[in-house]
Amino acid sequence: MAHFGFENDVQSLLKLDMPITNAPMARWQRKASTSTSANTSTLSPSKSANRSVSMSKTPSKTPGKNGKNQSTPSKAGGDRFIPVRNAKQMDVASFLIAKENEPVEEAAASSTQTNQKAWSVTLNGCDLEEAKILHLTGKPLNAPEGYQNNLKVLYSQVPTPMSLKKSRYISSVPERILDAPELKNDFYLNLMDWGRLNVLAVALSEYVYLWDAALGQIVLLKKMEEENGYISSVSWSKDGNFLAIGTSDCKVELWDVQCQKRLRSMDGHRARVSCLNWNDHVLSSGSRSGLIHQHDVRVADHHLFTLRGHTQEVCGLTWSPDGRYLASGGNDNLVNIWPSAQGGAQTAMHTFSEHQGAVKALAWCPWQSSILASGGGTSDRHIRIWNVNSGSCVTSWDTQSQVSSLVFAPNYKELVSGHGFAHDKIFIWKYPSLAKVAELEGHEGRILNMALSPDSSILASISSDETIRLWKCFEKDPTKKAKPASSSIIQQHIR
Fold this sequence. Notes:
This is CDC20/Fizzy WD40 domain-containing protein. The chain is of the alpha+beta class and 495 residues long.
């Protein structure tokens, strides 16, 4: 019987569903009882209240094994995550950064790359070079085999054919220098012109010389008969067979260059003839009196009419390429545009008064017949571009120097300006951007006149230093064909 009693006692102890009377209260029971008592009981003393609240909270610090306190979050997600950094990984990373910029021999390069790849795979589980999204150095990654790269190139630094085209070379040294002794240093005179037959006419005091640019020969064409007289202007006809000469004794002479013979002398002016220009068979002459005469050289009664628009000397005169307009500039700072109507009283179509100095430099644009360039004297120094159809100034810029001559270079669509005080240089401007292309230096005095060769490849400049300099700046493009020479219109009708 005692044996059976012992077994019953052991079984009763082994049953887990029976309540344990001596065990501590469960945590959920303590929380439930604490919250219930805090909500239902009335707390009067302050000390007991603080005590009950402090007992209801979970301790924020628990003692550690070493006697130090370790902080635990008061609620879930309250603290930041601090990753654990392996010291070995930091050492390897520092080593790789230090070794990246050191020179590596070609023999050891392959082994070093293999070791770096092995370390990367061991430490990170993959090769970091293959896992990079952006490569700051080196060549771009190619798409793996079997994949298509749909990225397009948005910008390329590959030079285009236009950017490969180099600007032409412009020599700063003249091709040839000719002597011009006893040249009259007068800003208002036009003493040089280059004809269509490649002959350069130059007036030196009382003489007129012809220089054949092809043969290099010099011919004395005229000498003034009057004492103290001088040549004040020269101008070639369009075909290059006849030369008009203005003199200080108020005359306009017409010479046949082939025969070296004076064909006629035309009177009418009351002062020196300082500028001349041709429009087919009509010769225009400007005088110091401010008057412009129109001559028909085919008939005996040569005088057609007189243009009155200047109060002082007319020092610039040029016809437009299409023969529709005549531009005149004077010492009165005016630029007048005259229509080409024949006969009757003439009035200026436009009068431009923006210049503040004498206007001698005038040039029509060969590829835009309605565009005129004008340059002012020492007190103005400006180059202005005009549209004669609208009568407006297209652009204007200060050259900081007296403008004595203007020439359009059609081979490269550029504008050439000759200057006096204070630069005494020749400037080449890109048209219409007006960017400076080159500066031609060498003259020791102010430039008085400029002229282009018949093929517009060589520029001639005459200066007060008594020299003529030839600048080979505008050689023609060999792909462009030369225009055939037109026959003379006035050759058979001149008397």
